[in-house]
Amino acid sequence: MSTPVLSTTALTKRYGRHTALAETTLDIPAGRIVGLVGPNGAGKSTLLALAAGLIRPTSGHIEVLGRTPAADAAQLARVGFVAQDTPVYAGLSVADHLRLGEHLNPAWDRRFAQARIAQIGLDPAKKAGRLSGGQKAQLALTLAAAKRPELLIFDEPVAALDPLARRAFLQNLMAFVAELDISVILSSHLIGDVERVCDHLVVLAESRVQVAGEIDDLTANHHRIVGPRGSLDALPDGIHVIAADHTPRQSTLIVHDTTGRTTLDGAEPIGLEDMVLTYLHRAEGLTAPTLQETRA
């Protein structure tokens, strides 16, 4: 069995009295594009900063590629990180950024970096401060990938981009993954983007993991069940109710079948967006919108 790209046990990060991440236990397999989804303040950036070694946990344990994050220069070289504002140096040219990347990273792939810059049409002489948001994001992606990491971490990389720039970024990301054979963790609140490019999902809300797993398995094993009031009170073992809505005459449940063998009458699959929203509303103590639609 290959080493998980990210493994945590009861991982917790506090800032004073504020808990940014609580008791997080995860095992994410290598070779995946992982979508980390949740509302603002859910703990996504904190988890990614811990994985990149930018901060240390308050308690618990985390390993990235089998080692402590940022343990030494060799471990740093194995991980590429792009922060939310896709940081580049406004006063440096595109070519300056490539030279800086080569100077700082022993495994730097000069040919790859130059080819990618040419492919996306960036002028090497142009200052980064004069690039569009989409171009800055593409430059940051190129810099992270050209160090030839085993893991690429992105914290909301497309949040500020227009739809065309966002699509171009995600297309380039998928091309990088195919070409470099690497793992990716991508945080986002745009579920459509996650569904387009990711094959593994982690849902964070209220500083805790709500659900995690392969996207195909999760969508196949979450169902909506509608039946007469009282008929769904006793469910088979392994069927966990995520949300419930009742009227005087009927009940509607969103359930997670952890056995993968749901044969309940009236069960129908739900999409990824409905599934994610159900978990987020449950975490916040709200009634899920997908259930409200069934009210009589």
TrEMBL record:
Task: Give GO terms: molecular function aspect only.
Answer: ATP binding
Q: Which UniProt keywords apply?
A: ATP-binding, Nucleotide-binding, Transport
Q: Which Gene3D superfamilies has this protein been placed in?
A: P-loop containing nucleotide triphosphate hydrolases
Q: Which InterPro entries match?
A: AAA+_ATPase, ABC_transporter-like_ATP-bd, P-loop_NTPase
Can you tell me which residues the record assigns to a coiled coil? none
> Does the keyword section mention Glycoprotein?
no
Q: PROSITE patterns per the record?
A: ABC_TRANSPORTER_2
Q: Which domain of life is it from?
A: Bacteria
Looking at the record, the residues that make up the ABC transporter domain are 6-231
Query: SMART domains, per this entry?
Result: AAA
Q: What protein family does this chain belong to?
A: Belongs to the ABC transporter superfamily.
Give the protein's recorded name: ABC transporter ATP-binding protein
The record lists the organism as Glycomyces niveus
